[in-house]
């Protein structure tokens, strides 16, 4: 009986070692959550401020929801653009995982993608409606992605195996 337990334990260790050796990287890509809008002077329409707006209350709630969803995702790296709304979207996830947020200029999506691809472990990237599709393409996603101006709930999950094509899963949160 004891030798059977040892054999079972040895097999389990070998299986874990094989799984770790062929580990996949998962990259989570989102657009920033809802930004705060300000009233247009003399009108009733709402528009985003021309400067660097923060998240709205709904945006802060969405950022917290993202952190809750990714709580068990073993995120090791968090990348955002330099804008406040992307950093605020990533903050709850980074705080929960005790990670630093690395901000990269929004015009340098090639840099953020290269850093994500070189990173060991799972990654969160927070961008914009016009940068997320480019990031996904640079990650090897073949499907053309568009994000409408009013869409803030996309969660793109890119699973990158050691070899072969990445798999894209598009979720809503």
Please describe what this structure looks like:
α2 packs parallel to α3. The chain has one domain: Phosphoglycerate mutase-like (Rossmann fold). The strands form 2 sheets. A 6-stranded mixed beta sheet has the order 5-4-6-1-7-8, sandwiched between helices. Helices cover 37% and strands 23% of the residues. It is an alpha/beta fold and 173 residues long. 30% of the residues are buried. The model is unreliable at 2-22 (pLDDT under 50).
Keywords:
single chain; two-stranded antiparallel sheet; disordered N terminus; alpha/beta; Rossmann fold; 173 residues
Radius of gyration: 19 Å
Within CATH, the superfamily carries the name Phosphoglycerate mutase-like
End-to-end distance: 49 Å
Helical residues, percent: 25-40%
DSSP strand tally:
8
CATH architecture name:
3-Layer(aba) Sandwich
The main sheet comes to: 6 strands, mixed
Low-confidence stretches: 2-22
Topology-level CATH name:
Rossmann fold
Task: Give the averaged pLDDT, no decimals.
Answer: 86
Summed up:
The protein is α/β, with parallel strands linked by helices. The protein has helices at residues 2-21, 57-69, 84-97, 109-118, 132-138, and strands at residues 25-31, 38-39, 46-47, 75-80, 101-103, 122-127, 154-160, 167-172.
What topology emerges from the helices and strands here?
Layout: H1 2-21, E1 25-31, E2 38-39, E3 46-47, H2 57-69, E4 75-80, H3 84-97, E5 101-103, H4 109-118, E6 122-127, H5 132-138, E7 154-160, E8 167-172
Parallel strand pairs: 1-6, 4-5, 4-6
Antiparallel strand pairs: 1-7, 2-3, 7-8
Helix pairs in contact: 2-3
């Amino acid at each position: 009986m004891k030798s059977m337990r040892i054999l079972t334990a040895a097999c389990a260790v070998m299986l874990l070692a094989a799984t770790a050796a062929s580990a996949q990287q998962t990259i989570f890509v989102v657009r920033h959550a809802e930004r705060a809008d300000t009233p247009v002077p003399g009108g009733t329409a709402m528009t985003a401020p021309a400067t660097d707006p923060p998240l709205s209350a709904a945006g802060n709630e969405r950022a917290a929801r993202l952190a809750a969803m990714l709580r068990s995702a073993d995120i090791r790296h968090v990348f955002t653009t330099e804008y406040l709304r992307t950093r605020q979207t990533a903050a709850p996830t980074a705080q929960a995982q005790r990670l630093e947020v690395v901000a990269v200029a929004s015009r340098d999506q090639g840099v953020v993608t290269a850093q994500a691809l070189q990173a060991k472990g799972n990654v969160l990237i927070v961008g914009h409606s016009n940068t997320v599709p480019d990031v996904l393409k640079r990650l090897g996603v073949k499907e053309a992605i568009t994000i409408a101006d009013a869409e803030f709930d996309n969660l793109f999950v890119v699973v990158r195996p050691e070899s072969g094509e990445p798999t894209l899963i598009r979720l809503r949160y």
